[in-house]
Amino acid sequence: MELLCPAGNLASLKTAINAGADAIYLGLKDDTNARSFAGLNFTPAKLAEAARYTHSQGRKIFLTLNTFPKPGEEGRWYRAVDLAAQAEVDALIVADISLLEYASNRYPHIPLHLSVQASATSAKALQFYKQAFNIERAVLPRVLSMKQVRDLAKEQVVDLEVFAFGSLCIMAEGRCHLSSWVTGQSPNTGGSCSPAKYVRWQECGNERHTRLNEVLIDKSSLDEQMGYPVVCKGRYCTKQEQQGSFLLESPTSLNTLSLLPELHQAGIASLKIEGRQRSPAYVEQVTRVWRQAIDTLLNNPQEFNVRRDWDQALAKVSEGQITTLGAYERAWQ
Amino acid sequence: MSSTLKYSLGPVQYCWEKPQVESFYQAVAASDIELVYLGEVVCSRRRQLKFNDYLDIAHQLKDAGKQVVLSTLTLVEARSELAELKKIVDNGEFMVEANDMAVVQLAHEQGLPFVAGPDINQYNLQTLQFLHRCGMQRFVMPVELSANWLKQVLQHKETLGFEAEVVGYGHLPLAHSARCFTARNMGLAKDQCDTVCSRHPSGLLLETQEGQSLLRLNGIQTQSAACTDLQDFREEMTDLGVDWYRISPLGPESLDYAMALIRGEHAPRPELACNGYWLGQPGMNNLSA
């Protein structure tokens, strides 16, 4: 069971490796990945350096190419695949059909992981990508219950990777247009959800107003701990209920520590930690806890219990400081 | 470039009771709409109509001279849903619209043609061409894309061998979740939802705390609060090579909208309209043509 950790820069990558990550995923400094934020990600030279360092430590490195090539600009995405091949990355995380086609034709030796942005949630969808592009692994969208994950794993179409911890997307990934509805840019088209340039905080008396492209998505008290503003975690009203409330989801993070034995038993190949946009301190904290948890489990699966200090450590770095099992737990749905 | 723009009716996105659905499609059968998409696309828990009920309606529409396409679920989670989708794909008579890659695979395995619906991730020409080689006969542009995107993709339309469709009217499907927002809003668990979404036959409107209409909850689907209306851009669509203008029904009155356009008249404007996506802007924007 692989522990796969995010890196937004070399410092995070080294921290993650030091804290016990088995593999690292990262993106280039452009819109070929869905965490295209200023000051984040890797230039081609840094990618090569990151790959050398990761391999010198006996770990693996995956390049995330999880956006969709734009008509007339496809070359940027193809070049990213070429760069990854030169850097000898261990896998490519890809969502777009044309890009999977390019990578599987040009570099059949590089393993392909189907990105969560491809939104494949069933055995049939996985079979499509397996037969067409020989994908080795798929990252599951955060829409399946634990039972559905188990059922899918039993089909053994490809290896499965699941989100274990981090910011919680509550919509089927890769098919969510909420960000572009308000800002014109979505993860698919613009490389990020709720691009920072559209976010504005306003202090009004003892309230903080959060605006996304001038749309008021939340009102909070000044001392309230806020997550990164996204449309699905705003406070809204209905005709019946004029008091603003979290009608889709509140700012919570996903934390599946308590599901670890079940995920292991289901044969999940990899546990993904979300957060390429987060600080090295976050990466360090989360990686360390998950390393300990996985090692504890593998040592003695029967006796596994979530330690309180693990949960406390994770809660500290969670969005809104509240964690949930999300869709894995039927009651959440 | 292309011949004239034709009009299609998208699948009903909402949970309507069976008599309402049946009378709606009787009116459709009597209309001049050429192409009709039919079927449950949002939630498999909605069982107001079953597969055979939809097939009956499909036959009535076919007898009335319509092209009929069976539309399918957008978010596939359970094995039971796959079995139901296989039954639809194997119907032996009508083409299907895939809204998830599972249905693309099911159709491809059987060597059957299909329509790639708006929720298939088709963001460039190479992807469309790949899907075409798998059997795709027509694609519906993802709702967040624009006229400029189409211009690039349809540059050599006549050589492509497949048709293009644009959602011209209706509340736009923006996202799908495992969570049922309507049930949650009514204080019900998803597994005991009693298809409470049927009480919101055009979705549940969400407003910001400043009273701006923003979203519309429709079970596990989140829609745009505003209704897209691209009637002023039909000439541009024709020039670009768009074959079909899709009307996503809000209710029986959507047929009046369709009929007005078919007659070459202006249709009544929605109260809250949007066209931003078509213009390459935030989808919620509404600009004059």
TrEMBL record, chain A:
InterPro entries: Peptidase_U32, RNA/ubiquinone_mod_enzymes, UbiU. Its cofactor is [4Fe-4S] cluster. Pfam families: Peptidase_U32. Pathway: Cofactor biosynthesis; ubiquinone biosynthesis. [4Fe-4S] cluster binds at C169, C176, C193, C232. The keyword Ubl conjugation does not apply. Keywords: 4Fe-4S, Iron, Iron-sulfur, Metal-binding, Ubiquinone biosynthesis. Forms a heterodimer with UbiV. Required for O(2)-independent ubiquinone (coenzyme Q) biosynthesis. Together with UbiV, is essential for the C6-hydroxylation reaction in the oxygen-independent ubiquinone biosynthesis pathway. Belongs to the peptidase U32 family. UbiU subfamily. This is Ubiquinone biosynthesis protein UbiU. It comes from Shewanella corallii.
